[in-house]
Amino acid sequence: MVQKIPTRPDAWQLLNKYNKSESLIKHALSVEAVMRYMAGKYGEPADKWAVIGLIHDLDYEQYPEQHCRMTKKILEQNNWPDEYIRAVMSHGWGLVTAVQPQTLLEKTLYTIDELTGFVTACALVRPSKSVMDLEVKSVRKKWKTLNFAAGVNREVIEKGAVMMACDLDDLINDVIMALRKISAEIGL
After folding, report:
1. Which of 34, 105, 135, 143 has the highest CB neighbour count under 10 A?
2. Ramachandran angles phi, psi of 34, nearest 5°
3. Can you tell me the distance from the alpha carbon of 170 to that of 149, in angstroms, rounded to the nearest whole number?
4. Class for domain 8-186, per CATH?
5. Is the pTM of this model over 0.85?
6. d(C-alpha 70, C-alpha 77), whole Å
7. Which residues of the chain are modeled with pLDDT < 70?
């Protein structure tokens, strides 16, 4: 069977089939936006990166104990390209999969998944509850408070930044800028 290139409507339909949680859908939209932004920054195919970002946690709500593995199965059943499936699997490297990020797309997804969650948490504790007035220095200040957003794996973000050969402050700024573009849609 010939694999077709998945579109955003394809990804959106699957995401909503397996996820009802508003917070997980907002996270998916956030990662989609950051992946689109990063693809633009690197001159990569924005639609492809965004679709992978949107679908990356497809299985998390219904199958948290099988995270990434069920997404692989679902995407295979829906005839998604192997490259897209591998990218999704790689974002769980060292946590729930052994698929190490190799490409720039995979390294970016691995890094910004957790970072997007952290930046979102930083925005939500601001008086404005918005990314529109969030600055890198505010995020860095919260970074040092280990009990803040304790569920965010800072080691993954730091390891990802090294893999991407990027400065962490620059990545934080990129995430903030990307989230500003969809702030109304995600309530930030």
Report:
1. 34
2. -70, -40
3. 20
4. mainly alpha
5. yes
6. 10
7. 1-3
In this prediction, residue 119 carries a pLDDT of 98
Domain range annotation of the chain: 8-186
Question: Which long-range contacts link 102-109 to residues 24+ away (Cβ below 8 Å)?
Answer: 104/42, 104/44, 104/164, 105/35, 105/39, 105/44, 105/48, 105/49, 105/52, 107/160, 107/163, 107/164, 108/35, 108/38, 108/42, 108/49, 108/160, 108/164, 109/31, 109/35, 109/52, 109/53, 109/56
Sequence-distant (≥ 6) Cβ neighbours of residue 181 within 8 angstroms: 33, 37
* Helices and strands per DSSP (H, E), number in the chain: 10, 0
* Residue 97 φ/ψ, nearest 5 degrees: -140, 165
Q: Given this model, what pLDDT does residue 64 score? A: 87
Q: How many CA atoms lie within 13 A of 25 on its CB side?
A: 15
Residues 110/91, Cβ–Cβ less than 8 Å = yes
Write phi, then psi, for 44 (nearest 5 degrees).
-105, 170
83-103 tens-digit pLDDT: 999 999 999 998 899 999 999
Cα(first)–Cα(last) distance of the chain, in Å?
42
Strand partners, 93: 97
Amino acid 50: pLDDT: 98
pLDDT score of 1: 55
Q: What is the pLDDT of residue 107?
A: 98
What does R_g of the chain's alpha carbons equal in angstroms?
16
